[in-house]
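input
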Amino acid sequence: MTTRNFVLLSAAAAALITLAACSSNSSSASGSSSGSNKITIGQDQANDHGTQDATGKSTFEIEADNDSSGYYFNPTILQGSAGQSITLEIKNEGSVPHNFSITSMNVNVTIQPGASQEMKVTFPQTGTVEYFCSFHHALGMAGELSVA
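output
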């Protein structure tokens, strides 16, 4: 084998190893996706930080945050049972004010950094209801209540 062929073959092998390492995909222990992936919520592209199940629970905490991955709610999708009432505690873990709004329920609450706010909401009978931050909605800060 000539030196030129050896160098080309070595470069090709290194490129394949690099591509394989970069294409690995991870997910959380629950199997839901997290991180800086995008998902569609209604007509919006949202920053996906996972799905959690709140079925049977009376309270649940949702994190409103911003960091190097963007503006987001964690979890992005909250599942529950049809007509389930739940008290949500929205905790602003970010460095700027965030908002939690659900248009169909007349919910519109602003939360300062480091603060939290509780509100009672109801899962729809079927389908989903979108929630969003009115300040950062266009930046992907949206989520949904979904009937499991």
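quick obs: Helices lie at 3-22.
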